Amino acid sequence: MNSVFRCRQFWPQRRLLSASFAAGLAGAVLAAWVSAAAAQDEPGTPQWNEAEVVFIGQVNEVKAGPVGMSFPPVHTHTLRIKVSEVLRGDVKANEQVTCSHSARQELPPEFSLEKPSIVAAMRSRGSLTIRRIEVADATNTAEAKAGCNLPLGWRVDRGQPISPWAELGKRAWNGDAGDAKTVCSKSGRPALAAGPEVMLEVEHVPPVREVQWSNPDGDGEYKITVTNPTKKPLVVPALLTDGKDILWANSLVILCQGRAYPCPDFKPDAGPLKPVTLQPGQSVSGIVNALKLEGPEWPRGGYRIVFQFCLGEKSVSKSFYYMSRHHDPIRNRLFPKKK
After folding, report:
1. What is the three-state SS of 233-295?
2. Distance between CA 331 and CA 337 in Å, rounded?
3. Pairing state of beta strands 127-135 and 96-104?
């Protein structure tokens, strides 16, 4: 049995040339939609530590989908993978998962059907979408495991751990690191985990005024909810409090376009801070405005941008439809010009 799945490039439109005009139009629309969807939702190839879900598994089925009419073309596939080891995320060992994959390139991608692969994926509209897949070897397995031992958004530079708050220096963390094994070499902030039992949920806040075709995902506000689903109290190290209020902006990181950002409204010099303890069944929620991020390239016209909301090692990705004529003025009001 060949260990690599190779698919033939095909163009749905060619099969429809002799069909009715309506059928041909439908095929063209489908291919255009595939191309546009891949372009809109594509957040770039992530580092292992940027992915919402990372696992090692065996690809046992590959189904080729439509090829988008672009140059280079967008190749789409559906993969069935049996998970053998979970490095991060909500999949489980021995589970069979179905993932979608798209790649904008001249030749169709190849997938191993015999050797295990490392997969980095995100949840998109309830489904797993592969952002990176490689045949597992000693080097990339070690790299993936080392990366997934750090909170999301952290990286290693010349052997030193760097957090998303590094540019803030010592203003990012007021207090000691306790018994943390890893601290940011620039800020002294400890690498804090959410914990395996805690649940993280993210949902967009409905806009004050719905504008047709402009803000189906709201106007940038998201409700972040952390839940203790167990029957015992849970300490959540990554969720911080000053003893009075939960400091959501000091707890969360947002990944966008391959870069990690401290949450908007982060309070420098806050502290000393301590972790939140959730009672059995307790949920807590806070509101974050992603449009306050400074740094991402905001889409022109109507397009999608992906926000990945991270608490320690847990995250939820949300695709946001940004209509520049509607959302640009909102962002301008968030950043009034200094006199």
Report:
1. CEEEEEEEECCCCECHHHCCEEEECCEEEECCCCCCCCCCCEEEEECCCCEEEEEEEHHHCCC
2. 12
3. parallel
Q: How far apart are CA 143 and CA 137, in angstroms?
A: 10
For 38, the enclosing helix (H) or strand (E) is helix 21-41
Return d(Cα 330, Cα 219) in angstroms, integer. Answer: 8
User: What tokens appear for 227 in the block?
Assistant: 């839940």
Query: Which residue bears the tokens 């992915």?
Result: 51
pLDDT digits (tens, 9 = 90+) for 207-240: 999 999 999 999 999 999 999 999 999 999 999 9
The DSSP output letter for 219 is S
- Structure-block tokens of residue 178: 């306790």
List Cα–Cα distances, 200 to 203, 228, 247, 314, 317, in angstroms.
10, 9, 16, 7, 11
In angstroms, rounded to a whole number, what is the distance separating the alpha carbons of residues 318 and 128?
13
37 has pLDDT over 70: no
Running DSSP on this structure, what letter comes out for residue 299? P
Confidence of residue 337 (pLDDT cuts 50, 70, 90): low
In angstroms, the CA 163 to CA 45 distance is 20
**Scanning the structure block, which residue is given the tokens 């409700």?**
223
Q: How confident is residue 6, by pLDDT bands cut at 50, 70 and 90?
A: low
Q: CA–CA separation, 36 vs 321, rounded Å? A: 13
**Is the Cβ–Cβ distance between 132 and 43 less than 8 Å?**
no
